[in-house]
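Example 3.2
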Amino acid sequence: MKELVLLLLVVAEASCRSHGTQCVPGCQCREDLKFTICSRALLSQLPSGVSASSELLDLSDNLISVIPKRAFSNNHKLRVLLLQSNNISEVQDGSFSQLEFLQKLDLSWNRISTLTEGFSVGLGFLRELQLAHNQLSSLDSWSFLHLDGLQKLNLTSNRIQTIHARSFAYMSTLRQLQLEDNRVTSLRRGTFSMLRSLEVLNLARNQIREMEMGVFNPLTSITLLNLADNQLSTICFKTFLSIHTYSTHILLRGNPWNCECELQRVFQKLQSIQRLFLDDYSNLTCQEPPVLRDFLLMKVDGELCIAETVTVLVITITVVITVLAAMLMGERKRKKRRRGLHWTQRGDLSDESDF
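Structure, written as tokens:
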């Protein structure tokens, strides 16, 4: 869809002068294509008088700061609305409530810090929502309340630290979720509830240190899980075992792995599961212990586990020998005490017989 829109924009701009006889000042129009192009028009507010027949409205690269309530009440035929690269910091409740046919909404590269409960009212047929490069810090259970038909959601490069349970609970048709380059530190159970259609989950370049077992359970259609460039030092086998799709590719590079023997066992078991593919396993490097820093994980696994096993055996044998030696010494002392007591008793008996 993106490629088609770009192509149509090029065609529209190439012929807008000859066809744009009735248009908003500062904009370019193609009535036959139902396009209104107001990009880079130095607009500080939404233009009035946009043709009611327009299906694509491009307001990108302007100076718009507020999207008022019912701002597009005369443009209910819009299918594509482009608002990227403005100064938008406020989207009032019900701003898009009249856009029942809207399929793509681009609000990327703005200053939006919160999504109110009324943000998504009227967007039940929206298929793609772009919110990348804004200032969102948390996602709540009402953030995407009315986006029942959404298939693509891009939240890349925000400031998201907290994702509350059921934040995506109303997105049963969502197929792609981009959360790359945020500040998420942990993944809790319930975070991705109801995302049964999700195919791509991009969590790269966050600060994820821990993941609860079962967090990926709802993702019954996932084909790509990107956890690269986070703060994972170890993982739990059961966390990924709960993924039951036929084929899932997992990316884990750029994490500070602690290359202990247990981690090696986890990766060995993961690689034995035919439905899971660790695409970048050969590029994973160790952060801990210091002696293995920057070593490739796959090249230290065998030696490390053998060394650990030998160490455990040596310690176990030493402990067993120490315990046995202590038991033997204790037994000897008991025997000595018994002999001493025996001779003492015999001495006492001899003294009695002298009388």
